[in-house]
């Protein structure tokens, strides 16, 4: 397991009782380096939508827990936010919740002359993602997909 994966997994473990306490759920956790800075980004969600108070509550509690555990030796910036309307669907649980929703799919390289596709998310499995585009089912290999996100307009 990489350093990044270890930090993300340990953070999720610390985060689980915190989100339960505040009535939100973990959408995603990512540890990334941008420029010279490291960021620990936590995305939280709830059915009614996340507000600033939710983010503040989770951020304060998580910050205290991270300070107590102190498993990340690098200096980092902690960010807690909503995944937003055009959220990226990274994990199977994200895909599952978004079945039947409008999505935008971006490929690493052109497929039949284009890199961007939009349609309704119909199915997925470990290897593929299927969308309905203008009444036609299109299946893409996950290895060819750079990103799938909820569409803001379709």
Commentary on this structure:
This protein has helices at 3-22, 52-69, 92-98, and strands at residues 25-34, 37-45, 76-81, 102-111, 114-124, 128-133, 136-141, 145-150. It is an alpha+beta fold and 154 residues long. It folds into 2 domains: 3-81, GMP Synthetase, Chain A, domain 3, CATH 3.30.300.70; 92-150, SH3 type barrels, CATH 2.30.30. A hairpin with a 2-residue loop joins strand 1 and strand 2 (37-45). Helix 1 (3-22) crosses helix 2. The longest helix is centred in the first third of the chain and has 20 residues, at 3-22. It starts with a helix and ends with a strand. 19% of the residues are buried.
Average pLDDT = 95
How far is the N terminus from the C terminus?
38 Å
H/E element string?
Answer: HEEHEHEEEEE
What is the CATH class of the largest domain? Alpha Beta
> Spatial order of the strands in the main sheet?
7-6-5-4-8
Helix share bin: 25-40%
- Please indicate the percent range of residues in DSSP E strands (runs of 2 or more): 35-45%
How many domains, in number, for the residues? Answer: 2
Largest sheet: 5 strands, antiparallel
CATH architecture of the largest domain: 2-Layer Sandwich
The helix tally amounts to 3
Low-confidence stretches: none
Got a strand count? Answer: 8
> Cα-atom Rg, whole angstroms?
17 Å
Under CATH, the homologous superfamily of the largest domain reads RimP-like superfamily, N-terminal
CATH topology annotation of the largest domain: GMP Synthetase, Chain A, domain 3
Structural class: alpha+beta
